[in-house]
Amino acid sequence: MSGKWSGLVKLAAAAAIGATVASGATALAGSDDATAARAKEPANIGQVKNDVKAYYGDYLDAAGKHHYSDTSRFAKDTKNVVADAKRYLQQQLGRVKNPAIVLDVDDTSEITYGWEADNDFGFDPVKQQQAIDNGTFTANKPVLELTNWAVQHGVKLYFLTGRNELQGPQSLKNLANEGYPAPAGAFFKPKVTAPDYLPCGLTCNTVQYKSGTRAHIEATGAKIVLNVGDQFSDLEGGYALRPIKLPNPMYYLP
């Protein structure tokens, strides 16, 4: 996941989980024109935020900080998706030579929900950097369990994230502290110097960067069985037997 999104625009994807309340029709209430107007308008941003919080089973701790619930629809959906991914990986073991899994970081390997809600779902790169420096984000438990199981069964682990290369060392330290095994490779979006395998250099969009990096990983002899991410742009471009889309109604990254 990249850190370049708008605090309002990023919530648009949340409408998919049931945000149906429209705002401010100018036509007379009860008229056909009013009904048509409401049907065309986007969901009210306040209602969308409430729907997102409900999806995550939002609750506040004693310090007033937001958290997601392990019994939430989000947690259940994530467990189901990861369980399907594990079954597929099990089927491929012994069939695929040098199997590998590729994981995005934000809202894939780690969950940023509490931090997002604490910041009213707005993005501030300075605050994001502070969160990374402080190890604020928490491990995505089903993904963590899948990853450890995979590595124990001879599958190579690669992290592939939109976080920039300067955020790499602390990000890897946090992932290790959360219980993730040491990866065979970790790739952060180039900010200073681009590798030769990315012809788009420092101007790559997400799909170019991630698919190009997966192609590079496979060129080393690994075969990516699972490519796990929370955005469709994490998954597009091929170079994986099975793309795995995790739920994330908080934002959309092209």
TrEMBL record:
The keyword Thylakoid does not apply. It comes from the Bacteria. Keywords: Signal. The keyword Aminoacyl-tRNA synthetase does not apply. Residues 1-27 form the signal peptide. This is Acid phosphatase. It comes from Amycolatopsis iheyensis.
